[in-house]
Amino acid sequence: MASLMNTFKFVQKLTANNPAVLRQAARSMAGWNKDYKAGKFPQSDAEREAAAKKYFLLPEEYKPYADNGLGYGDYPELKGGLGIEARDPFYPYDFPELKRNLHETFHAESDLYSEDRWSQPAPPRYANSTYWLGFLGCMAGCLVLYYWLENYRMYRPVAVKQYPGDGRKHYTFETN
Question: Which chain regions cross the lipid bilayer (predicted)?
Answer without folding.
Answer: 131-149
